[in-house]
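Fill in residues.
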């Protein structure tokens, strides 16, 4: 898959995400073309937890780093909450 195709796919996926959740509760949104992944970082609050649930992201508490992390089954989306 060419880099241009990856970029177009990521933009489309990002547009779909924006219809499902509000991004205002996330302080960092990264689009990783080389990983074909979108990552969202935010604080633990009801809105970010609800967004993870809507997106089918299973969050697991990382005791060592003191944060919730998780991703979708297809590894196309990752969420980190602190």
């Amino acid at each position: 898959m060419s880099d241009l195709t990856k970029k177009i796919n990521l933009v489309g996926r990002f547009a779909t995400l924006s219809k499902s959740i509000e991004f205002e509760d996330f302080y960092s949104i990264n689009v990783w073309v080389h990983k074909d992944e979108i990552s969202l970082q935010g604080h633990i609050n009801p809105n970010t937890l609800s967004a993870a649930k809507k997106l089918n992201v299973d969050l697991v508490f990382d005791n060592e780093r003191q944060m919730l992390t998780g991703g979708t089954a297809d590894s196309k989306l990752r969420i980190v909450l602190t």
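The beta strands are 26-32, 37-42, 60-62, 67-71, 77-81.
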